[in-house]
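hi! just following up on the protien thing from before. the input was this:
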Amino acid sequence: MSSKALPRFQRLAVAAAAVCAAGLAGAAQTMPDGRPTPSGQPVPRWLSLKSSEVHARFGPGLDHRILWAYRVSGLPVQVIAETTEWRKICDPEGAVAWVHRSVVSSRRSLFNATREEIPVRSGRSPGAPVRARLSPRSLAAMDDCEGGWCRIRAGRLRGWVRETAVFGTQAGAMCDAARPAGPRPGPADGGG
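and the predicted 3d structure came back as:
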């Protein structure tokens, strides 16, 4: 090999290594079926609804029928699959639907899906003083979670809630990505 060919060969090797590394980095974000995600973001992941009217569709496209409309801005939803333009989501009721990517935000929130008040504490400890209570079926903005606790904001209130007590923080998929869009199956449908 000539001395002029060596630098060219080295440049090609470096370029090929860079392309391979970029491909591997993109392949790290996959959907449950193993395909890479179109957005390059992980699935499942948490987003929130941007507006107080979001149409939930049976499939990914305007030609699919509207199943219902979400009427709560800031509601946390979990992306369980996606196309380039559409996100298949799981909501606090366990329902699955498709929404357009333009109606979701990366702002994090959490939801008290229970019928009980959840104590909002001044620190990350079950013994920390209670500052307030998160009412049943209510939302709060979330800053971050660490050590099993999530820091929330609601108006001027700042505090901590247990990560396991709220919807919008779980690491694993809350709904099966292979399930067709629609309400959560009930006991008669084989669901829970």
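Residues 8-27 have pLDDT under 50 and may be disordered.
The chain is about 10% helix and 35% strand.
cheers
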